[in-house]
Amino acid sequence: MTVDLKLFELVDSKTRKVSFSPAVWRAKFALNYKKITYESVPLTFLEIPTVITAACPNVISPTVPTLQLEPGNGLPDSFAIAEYIEEQYPDRPLLFGKNISEKNLQRFFESYVQSKIHPPIRRMVYNDMYSMQDEKNADYFRTSREKSSGQPHHLIAGDRNQNLRELKESLGLVHTALQSGDWILGPQPGWADFVLGASFMWFNSCSPNDFKEGILEAFDDQIMLNYWKKMQEYVY
Amino acid sequence: MTVDLKLFELVDSKTRKVSFSPAVWRAKFALNYKKITYESVPLTFLEIPTVITAACPNVISPTVPTLQLEPGNGLPDSFAIAEYIEEQYPDRPLLFGKNISEKNLQRFFESYVQSKIHPPIRRMVYNDMYSMQDEKNADYFRTSREKSSGQPHHLIAGDRNQNLRELKESLGLVHTALQSGDWILGPQPGWADFVLGASFMWFNSCSPNDFKEGILEAFDDQIMLNYWKKMQEYVY
After folding, report:
1. What is the pLDDT of residue A40?
2. Which of A14, A24, A66, A122 is the most exposed place for a label (fewest CB within 10 A)?
């Protein structure tokens, strides 16, 4: 098996140390769960197009994560990366299970996280993500987010209490699901758990206080905290 | 295997012919999918306590569905019934798959249907369900629903357009999931599909026009209609 894998990641442009992208964390969790060795290549927003295009000319629209499989050949998109390593390393713990039904249900869970849990987090981390950027990256971030949200800079974060309420509402089904086992999937984690964990990493990397209040302390028990602690095994 | 199974079902009190309860339909789909023979016992709201208590004295709080396993012994709750027949008939097609992870993910899907798809349907069928009852059952239905919803009779149905919007929003993830296969699970149906199909049966039995507009025609393609057609194989 190749040992030359490189993972192009997104980091903040002020310290270059904080990997905050939820899409990147999905790939990292998947790689770490399977104990696959890779070299991390940290990039700022503005470095993504040039560095990835130079390293992996086959990637038409450079995004993170991109996994460089060998020099010149990159695989973008967290789900495609997960499918690739699942196929390449079938002897390692499975991300998707053995049945198409389980994979489809995990994709449903992924859609849920993406459409119900990401939006309130996205608004809550907005100002902190902005502050983590140097001037040029901050400009890029602001402009692209104003465009994607259709709102001016000062309105994107929205009302904090309303964001917390919306997040808790969407987290309710997750909290219920975690009551029946250690992980969303049961005794072992898998793609669904790493999708969720990746949003938590994103939230915590940018806005640790809001993460604590909005996720870890959202319910009157230890379920979210214990889940988060267990997840740390795959954070590196 | 026993052939004396009886399923206590809910029917309208005017014609006694319409089985409209989504909980009952989950059990019926599960039984039909496994081709298990059972005798149907139709009950109105007001008959449930007396008839089930007399037939199955072990059932403390009589509800539908209740599956009478043998004279005097009833099993209430659609999920418990599904688990029971899955265990008793392991040679028949599986409802939950072979892995706990798949079962847990199906339960997550069930929670989603229950908390996101049922509420708008519940409001949209309210007036029709009321009209399907004779005087005494209508009184019971109205009183219990006023209590559970915390709203007076004339407000329970809510605004039709808002209900349709909310339903379509929640149906979005389902529609996406159905794009990758025949069923939510893929090439074969299972518990998740029957949970969803049961809500559709409920909606269609009570308010066929709203069902058509709110489900079958909610998207600009044939996905929901084809799904509904396929589901008919298990409707009897």
Report:
1. 97
2. A14
Tally of CB atoms within 10 A around A226: 13
Would you tell me how many other CB atoms lie within 10 Å of the CB of residue A133? 19
**Band of the pLDDT at B176, cuts 50, 70, 90?**
very high
Gap between the Cα atoms of B174 and B176, Å rounded: 5
Hey, what are B223's tokens? Answer: 């996905």
Mean pLDDT of A207-233: 98
- pLDDT, tens digit (0-9, with 9 covering 90-100), for A77-130: 999 999 999 999 999 999 999 999 999 999 999 999 999 999 999 999 999 999
Name the DSSP class of A44.
Answer: -
Beta carbons of A177 and B112 less than 8 Å apart: no
pLDDT at residue B4, rounded to an integer: 82
Cβ–Cβ of B106/A104 closer than 8 Å? Answer: no
Q: What is d(CA B220, CA B175) in angstroms, rounded to the nearest whole number?
A: 11
Three-class SS state of B171:
helix
Length of chain A: 236
Interface test with B, best of A105, A110, A166, A182 (most B CBs within 10 A): A105
What's residue B183's pLDDT?
A: 98
Assign domain A6-88 to its CATH superfamily. Answer: Glutaredoxin (3.40.30.10)
- Which CATH architecture group holds B100-234? Up-down Bundle (1.20)
Considering only CA atoms, which of B120, B143, B123, B119 is closest in space to residue B133? B143
Contact B108 A172 (CB under 8 A): no
Q: From CA B200, how far away is CA B230, in angstroms rounded?
A: 13
Confidence of residue A181 (pLDDT cuts 50, 70, 90): confident
Q: What is the CA B198 to chain-centroid distance, rounded?
A: 3
Which 8-state DSSP code applies to residue A68? E
Residue A232 near chain B (CB below 8 Å): no
Yes or no: say if A34 and A16 are a contact pair by the CB < 8 Å rule.
Answer: no
Domain residue ranges of chain A, discontinuous segments joined by +: 6-88, 100-234
Q: Nearest-5° angle of CA A117, CA A122, CA A124?
A: 100
Interatomic CA distance for residues A117 and A171, integer angstroms: 7
Taking the C-alpha atoms of residue B208 and residue B225, their distance in angstroms, rounded to an integer, is 13
Pairing type for strands B66-70 and B73-76 reads antiparallel
What are the structure tokens assigned to B16, written together?
A: 């006694």
Confidence tier at A211 by pLDDT (50, 70, 90): very high
